[in-house]
């Protein structure tokens, strides 16, 4: 979509990289963790999205001549620029699978590369993963509420610029059935879907004629917007006339769309009119500033709505607007590294690590992931990362490693799965998460802990810095 180069970054990455280069540190090994601190939307889980997009971009990322010329004008050193000219990421990445159900604090992805490589990719990694994960999480919250109803993404027009491209993609990962976003349909082979705008009906002198023309030229999956003048007195009766005319030609009107007023009331009244006309197959779509709260209310009112079109509130990730995902150095030049903070919650967890998901006897998630040193297995006990006296025995539970190699020597290890495969994986994993973590209000808190060895290593490092 966008022509990414390595100047899609923050200046400080280049300033730091130049120092590493000029001081002979450029090839020192470094390990960075990507994780977030707070689950968005006061929810009980998040959905990891954007990984394959990031890896595909990373594989081809370099500095163009235009980049080099520009950096020259910004007073970067000639020999550093000569080094950047041939620069390519050749590191290793281990990560959770895209679509995985993820939680705060535990690493979702780990980059192992030279310090320059790892630093130069930080901004683009955070930019792509934070946003797509936020929107996939929002979409999955909406999906949990809408259950089997059809969900369509209508957000592109109100998205933050080209972010709409990534938002529509992430919405599919989170469980949306289709999108109005045509370029996302083209690029990711996902169903595109759409109705008609008020302007189309307004441009005609009468609504019936507008409906007729539209149905004539696009009879397949035709949806008529019925609220331009008067939903129950004009829109629905005109849609019924056109539906009957379509029947005479062996066609079927797919749906009507409501876009204003009390959606439950208009859906109910419209359903009656359609059913009384023998058109019970015609579906009812609704839109207008929908989000998981409005949809929850409509579901509770048993509104006979079959299709929800969700735009603004989905693609801008309202109300959270951003995932607080961070990228922190945990190991470099042969030593574990730590950032110490007043609060243990903001003190980083050093070392190369692995994350283990525990499963109960039925094969469901057990509500606890444990972070270990990378060479540990079969963790017996996990310790609270911020509250030193809390621990949990987990030895009897089946444990599955979440961080798996996805890139080596700068090359992706597997072809990118299709968006629908990622969505299917996400759906299957979410089904393993017990209901109490998916509860709409006050979900149960999924536990994240550290193995004894990791806890000890972290404490040692904290103490060595204190001394
Ligand atoms: N039955 C309902 N239950 C809960 N929320 C609803 C219901 N019907 C509509 N809403 C939601 O209420 C919000 C505001 O609707 P409101 O009726 O004020 O807007 P509107 O219909 O666009 O106004 P206007 O008729 O001026 O166009 C929207 O987010 C809409 O989705
Ligand atoms: O409310 P959202 O969740 O963002 O959903 C998308 C909205 O965008 C359209 O309105 P718009 O006024 O832009 O165009 P229209 O004239 O076709 O209604 C559509 O009719 C929805 O109301
Ligand atoms: O197809 C639609 O009905 C649609 C598309 C984008 C935004 N609002 C509605």
From TrEMBL:
The keyword Ligase applies. Pathway: Cofactor biosynthesis; NAD(+) biosynthesis; nicotinate D-ribonucleotide from nicotinate: step 1/1. One of its GO terms (molecular function) is nicotinate phosphoribosyltransferase activity. Transmembrane segments: none annotated. It is an enzyme of class 6 (ligase). Residues 352-456 form the Nicotinate phosphoribosyltransferase C-terminal domain. Its EC number is 6.3.4.21. InterPro entries: NAPRTase_C (IPR041619), NAPRTase_N (IPR040727), Nic_PRibTrfase-Fam (IPR007229), Nic_PRibTrfase_pncB (IPR006405). It holds the Pfam family NAPRTase_N. Belongs to the NAPRTase family. PANTHER family: NICOTINATE PHOSPHORIBOSYLTRANSFERASE. Catalyzes the first step in the biosynthesis of NAD from nicotinic acid, the ATP-dependent synthesis of beta-nicotinate D-ribonucleotide from nicotinate and 5-phospho-D-ribose 1-phosphate. This is Nicotinate phosphoribosyltransferase.
């Amino acid at each position: 979509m966008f022509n990414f180069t390595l100047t899609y970054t923050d200046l400080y990455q280049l300033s730091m990289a130049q120092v590493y280069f000029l001081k002979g540190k450029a090839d020192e090994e470094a390990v960075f963790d990507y994780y977030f601190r707070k689950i968005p939307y006061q929810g009980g889980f998040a959905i990891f999205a954007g990984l394959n997009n990031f890896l595909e971009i990373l594989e081809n990322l370099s500095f163009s001549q235009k980049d080099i010329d520009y950096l020259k004008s910004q007073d970067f050193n000639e020999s550093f620029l000569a080094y950047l000219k041939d620069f390519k990421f050749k590191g290793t990445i281990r990560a959770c699978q895209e679509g995985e159900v993820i939680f705060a604090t535990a690493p979702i992805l780990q980059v192992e590369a030279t310090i320059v490589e790892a630093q130069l990719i930080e901004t683009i990694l955070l930019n792509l993963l934070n946003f797509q994960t936020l929107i996939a999480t929002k979409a999955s919250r909406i999906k949990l509420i809408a259950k089997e109803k059809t969900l369509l993404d209508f957000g592109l027009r109100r998205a933050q610029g080209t972010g709409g491209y990534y938002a529509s993609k992430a919405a599919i990962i989170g469980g949306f059935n289709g999108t109005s976003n045509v370029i996302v349909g083209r690029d990711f082979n996902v169903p595109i879907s759409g109705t008609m705008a008020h302007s189309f009906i307004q441009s005609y002198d009468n609504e019936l004629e507008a409906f007729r023309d539209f149905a004539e030229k696009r009879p397949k999956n035709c949806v008529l917007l019925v609220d331009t003048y008067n939903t129950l007195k004009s829109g629905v009766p005109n849609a019924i006339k056109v539906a009957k005319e379509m029947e005479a030609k062996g066609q079927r009107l797919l749906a009507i769309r409501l876009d204003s007023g009390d959606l439950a009331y208009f859906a109910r009244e419209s359903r009656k009119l359609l059913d009384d006309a023998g058109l019970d197959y015609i579906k009812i779509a609704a839109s207008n500033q929908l989000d998981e709260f409005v949809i929850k209310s409509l579901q509770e009112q048993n509104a006979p709505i079959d299709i929800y079109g969700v735009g603004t509130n989905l693609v801008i990730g309202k109300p959270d607007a951003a995932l607080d995902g961070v990228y922190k150095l945990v190991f470099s030049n042969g030593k574990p590294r730590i950032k110490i903070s007043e609060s243990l919650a903001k003190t980083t967890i050093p070392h190369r690590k692995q994350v283990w998901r525990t499963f109960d006897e039925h094969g469901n998630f057990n509500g606890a992931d444990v972070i270990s040193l990378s060479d540990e297995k079969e963790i017996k006990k996990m310790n609270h990362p911020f509250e030193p006296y809390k621990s949990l025995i987990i030895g009897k539970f089946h444990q599955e490693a979440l961080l798996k190699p996805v890139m080596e020597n700068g090359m992706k290890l597997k072809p990118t799965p299709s968006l629908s495969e990622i969505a299917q994986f996400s759906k299957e994993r979410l089904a393993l998460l017990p209901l109490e973590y998916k509860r709409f209000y006050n979900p149960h808190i999924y536990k994240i802990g550290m193995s004894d060895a990791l806890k000890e290593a972290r404490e040692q490092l904290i103490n060595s810095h204190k001394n």
